[in-house]
Amino acid sequence: MVKPALKLLLTWLLLATPAAAPLEAQDALTLAPFAARQLAPGVHLLATPSDFLGPAISNVAIIEQRDGMVVIDSGATVAHGRAIVTYIRSITRKPVKAVVITHWHNDHPLGVSALRDAWPRLRVIATPQTRAGLLGPASTSVGLAWDERYETFVLNQLAGTQARIRARRADPANSDEERARYDRMAREMENFGRGYRGTILVLPTETFTRELLIDDDERPVRLMFLGRANTEGDAVAWLPRQRIVATGDIVVAPTPFGFFSFPESWIGVLGRLKALDFALLIPGHGEPMTDSAYLDRLIATINDIRAQVGPLARQGLSLDEVRGRVDFSGQTAIFGTTPRLRSTFEGYWLTPMVENAWREARGDPIIQGGGDTTPNSVNRQRRN
Questions:
Q1: Considering the entire predicted model, what is its pTM?
Q2: Domain range holding 351?
């Protein structure tokens, strides 16, 4: 069976290839295609460009405080972490004193080891639920645990997708533009595979249940758990003086992610985000937002899914029967404005969210990662 982290990775991934050269010989910023910008004085964002064709990589927010830097999320590979280190050292001599992991999805915590190598005393902070999600279901205790054998497993799986991308690229019906797109996709995916080598999981060193303040005279960071939403333990970082909020994957644009999520409570969390009256919202992926219009769209789509799926599920219909009776064409028209967005909206959002709403209405548990695991020996010394 495929582990939950790899399921998510392969959902987002079309191609990756094993390293052709040692990681040390590669430019960190080539292997982590972040574009950097300053959002406000002392607040920076590292994000993939809008035309990036590789797998999903989390947005990374960087906040400067008097005695050090606070980093929100860290990307999907050790190379992403090294790129964060490179950028921070280009703007300041201050150390990173804390990194916050918003949730357990594999594209958010896996750069931490590089930050810890650069600043061994940094705090690694998450909610208890996220720490449990990183470890996996309690019955298995493997979850997202990485060691050398799992790295090989992941890279082999990624390399196995090469035939599909080559076949697509070789289709004679492709235009020159489409072939160029496949070529660029291949290069970006190859860089991702190279940057993955040496990636290990570093668990949080501390957790908080409701709130935790990382205080500062100019830019205090208030960490909050507002309820279950995209995952069981989503953390939010709120800068009250700047009115900036980093949400992790509670908010993702232009296509939300719905895997293993909690529809009813997610609506409440989105309402609490709106109540912050933010000036700027940094989503887990996508462009920062200056108003709550997109949050209203998310609330509306979750309400629609629950309204259509819930009654059918409570009547005892199977998931397949429910899927055959619901109609979300109106939502697809709003979120799927291009063929590619339409496909991702249906695959990343509608398909998993219908199942989530079906389980919720039946009273069935929503297990983070789906409980799907592969036997794996955990190298606890390296991970802690």
A1: 0.86
A2: 303-368
